[in-house]
């Protein structure tokens, strides 16, 4: 029973990792950029949620919508201001820009009046409630995280399979130049991708907030979502979800059964081991690059 | 200047110091830095010591990223390994002259350890693998309390050089400067050798290098070993400079600082390492100095250093991707060809996204 309990709470955290990893992968597939500020976007999303719900006093669900929309707008601004001038430059330079952006976001939030350097609590209608399934006691926060992740993933799946824009995005991610020649507006899609990725990050941040409080360093969880994305092959959305779940569950079990200290590094040990055997990730395709 | 650009002999590509004018210039710069302890006060000298140490560490990063094209997010781990090796050995009574090379060797061993599995990875996957390695090392150091004393911290004894105690800031600065110069010369010479040319070939195109007979496995591992060893030396010196080390001092932020150092300094240049180190060390000082000039509402914010760091990093990459050294070179070219330079001469090349996946 304890084992199952650990698995469920691990799966909930794993879903958060999976969502952040999903944000990485959306941007990576569309623009081949790794957004090191993804975790920080998540942190900003959580702050927006806190502002809308606790400072402005909006009802929870409205507040969430405002926060997600606000973060999506921030994503668009970032794409327009920072990423546009970088189109066509080496991938590494773009990565460094997102690193700088992460620093900037982390320090800017501490300067906003009402946010400051303190930790804040985001009030939700479901905090403190538990769901009982036989002997299994699952806190409502975990249930919500898992449920929202499932819905979100189903939505994204349908979007990429069923809509014109989604298919255009897939085309652009497979071959940017060919997609451009086919009349797909690559720049506009890239803006949209950043908005989507920021929105996903905001949802993850708001869901995580009841578990961890809202503070400027929350975004460091993004660094843990990396192994999740890489385990899944960094280009595959189902891979990200499986990767996130594996990490979350292993971490939770390691925290319970292994000596202290293992919990924080499980993700990395697992990742190194996986990379040694599958250098392209579990779901990655291994293709030799043409010269 | 222009006559130096005209190559008439293959030997000119290989020579370390091009011409007598350059030799004189280097001699003067060297003399200035040796005389520095008697010219400025102790606080500023201490900053210069940090610059020397960071430049040595950055040199390791430059060999990896700037010359072999291997992204490492785990330099902090090598720095920590160097620092703790020196710390543990010297606490046990081993003299500094033995502990310093030992720190480099142990770090190089760690570099080979991460370099071997990393052989099959490039770019992104390598970055994440080294990042993971850094986290694991940090955790091991925190937990291995019998050697490292964990988060209690390790107190470093004063370094002694053949019975001569390095007990003042002045002596320690000269020691660091000396080691920096040795390391710079070593790397400069390495880059003139077949090994260095193999590194650069790997950076420019792995597949082309492989086709020309460069053994990727050997050279990539070697690059990791050298990069890690240099960072390990820096770690040992840093431990002495800080006199008290804890695992938290070697977190992910230090790895990112190292990355910033080489990018801001200028990728693929040894000058860039020194410029970048000066940038990383002096930036917080400059910001602290500017605090007094800013309105109170802004100056009292705690996050202002980090914000400035982020903004400057972004601006550098958008405006001057060649780093400080790149800017210096284009300025020099501008003056040497004075009326004939056009804005287009320094325009950046852009290309359609070349996917690494297909």
What does this 3D model show about the protein?
The complex is a heterodimer of chains A (291) and B (358). Chain A is built from eleven helices and two strands; from the N terminus they run ααααββααααααα. By secondary structure, chain A is mainly α. Chain A has a domain at 18-218. The longest helix of chain A has 30 residues, at 2-31. The radius of gyration of chain A is 19 Å and the shape is globular. In chain A, 51% of the residues are buried. Chain B is mostly helical and 358 residues long. Chain B has a domain at 33-251. In chain B, helix 5 packs antiparallel against helix 6 (96-118), helix 13 packs parallel to helix 17 and helix 14 (270-291) crosses helix 16. The model of chain B is unreliable at 353-358 (pLDDT under 50). The chains are: A mainly alpha (291), B mainly alpha (358). At the A-B interface, helix 4, helix 9 and helix 11 of A face helix 7, helix 13 and helix 16 of B.
Keywords:
heterodimer; A: 291 residues; mainly alpha; two-stranded antiparallel sheet; 11 helices; 2 strands; B: 358 residues; two-stranded antiparallel ribbon; 4 strands; globular; disordered C terminus
- The parts of chain B where pLDDT drops under 50 for at least 5 residues are 353-358
Number of helices of chain A: 11
Which class of secondary structure composition applies to the elements of chain A? Answer: mainly alpha
Helix content of chain A: over 70%
Mean pLDDT of chain A: 82
Distance between the termini of chain B: 44 Å
Overall radius of gyration of chain B: 21 Å
Approximately how much helix is present in the residues of chain B? over 70%
- Largest sheet of chain B, described in full? 2 strands, antiparallel
Compute the number of strand runs of chain A: 2
String of helices and strands of chain B: HHHHHHHHEEEHHHHEHHHHH
Q: In percent, how much strand structure appears in the residues of chain A?
A: under 5%
What's the number of helices of chain B?
17
């Amino acid at each position: 029973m304890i084992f199952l309990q650990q698995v469920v709470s691990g799966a909930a955290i794993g879903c958060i990792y999976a969502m952040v990893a999903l944000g990485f992968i959306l941007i990576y597939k569309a623009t081949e950029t790794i957004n090191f500020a993804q975790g920080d976007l998540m942190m900003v999303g959580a702050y927006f949620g806190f502002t809308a719900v606790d400072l402005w006093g909006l009802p929870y669900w409205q507040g969430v919508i405002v926060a997600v929309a606000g973060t999506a707008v921030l994503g668009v601004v970032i794409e327009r201001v920072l990423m546009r001038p970088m189109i066509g430059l080496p991938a590494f330079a773009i990565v460094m820009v997102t690193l700088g952006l992460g620093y900037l976001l982390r320090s800017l939030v501490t300067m906003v009046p009402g946010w400051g350097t303190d930790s804040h609590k985001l009030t939700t209608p479901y905090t403190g409630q538990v769901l009982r399934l036989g002997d299994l006691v699952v806190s409502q926060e975990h249930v919500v995280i898992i449920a929202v992740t499932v819905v979100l993933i189903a939505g994204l799946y349908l979007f990429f399979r069923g809509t014109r824009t989604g298919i255009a995005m897939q085309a652009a991610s497979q071959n940017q130049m060919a997609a451009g020649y086919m009349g797909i507006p690559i720049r506009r899609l890239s803006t949209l991708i950043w908005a989507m990725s920021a929105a996903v990050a905001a949802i993850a941040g708001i869901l995580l907030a009841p578990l961890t409080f809202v503070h400027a360093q929350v975004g460091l969880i993004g660094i843990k979502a990396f192994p999740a994305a890489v385990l899944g092959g960094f280009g595959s959305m189902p891979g990200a979800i499986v990767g996130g779940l594996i990490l979350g569950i292993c971490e939770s079990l390691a925290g319970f059964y292994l000596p202290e200290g293992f919990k924080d590094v499980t993700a990395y040990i697992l990742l190194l081991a996986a990379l040694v055997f599958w250098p392209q990730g579990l779901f990655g395709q291994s293709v030799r690059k043409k010269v | 200047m222009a006559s130096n650009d005209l190559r008439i002999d293959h030997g000119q590509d290989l020579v370390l110091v091009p011409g007598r004018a350059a030799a004189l210039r280097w001699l003067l710069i060297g003399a200035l830095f040796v005389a520095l302890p008697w010219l400025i006060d102790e606080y500023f000298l201490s900053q210069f010591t940090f610059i020397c140490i960071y430049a040595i560490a950055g040199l390791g990063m430059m060999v990896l990223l700037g010359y072999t094209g291997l992204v490492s997010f785990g330099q902090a781990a090598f720095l920590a390994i160097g620092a703790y090796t020196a710390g543990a050995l010297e606490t046990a009574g081993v003299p500094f002259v033995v502990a310093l090379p030992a720190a480099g060797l142990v770090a190089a061993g760690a570099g080979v350890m991460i370099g071997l599995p990393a052989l099959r990875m490039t770019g992104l996957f390598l970055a994440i693998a080294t990042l993971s390695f850094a986290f694991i090392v940090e955790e091991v150091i925190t937990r291995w309390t019998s050697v490292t004393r964990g988060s209690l911290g390790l107190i470093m004894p004063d370094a002694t050089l053949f019975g001569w105690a390095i007990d003042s800031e002045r002596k320690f600065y000269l020691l660091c400067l000396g080691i920096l110069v040795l390391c710079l010369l070593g790397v400069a010479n390495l880059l003139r050798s077949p090994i260095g040319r193999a590194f650069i070939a790997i950076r420019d195109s792995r597949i082309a290098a492989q086709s020309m007979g460069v053994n990727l496995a050997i050279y990539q591992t070697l690059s990791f070993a050298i990069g890690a060893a240099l960072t390990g030396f820096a770690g040992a010196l840093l431990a002495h400079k800080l006199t008290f080390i804890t695992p938290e001092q070697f977190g992910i932020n230090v790895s990112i600082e190292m990355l910033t150092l080489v990018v801001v300094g200028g990728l693929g240049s040894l000058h860039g390492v020194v410029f970048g180190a000066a940038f990383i060390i002096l930036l917080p000082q400059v910001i602290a100095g500017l605090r007094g000039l800013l309105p109170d509402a802004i100056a009292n914010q705690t996050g202002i250093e980090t914000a400035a760091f982020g903004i400057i990093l972004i601006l550098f990459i958008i405006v001057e991707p060649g780093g400080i050294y790149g800017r210096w070179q284009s300025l020099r070219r501008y003056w040497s060809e004075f009326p004939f330079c056009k804005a287009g001469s320094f325009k950046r090349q852009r290309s359609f996204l070349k996917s690494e996946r297909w």
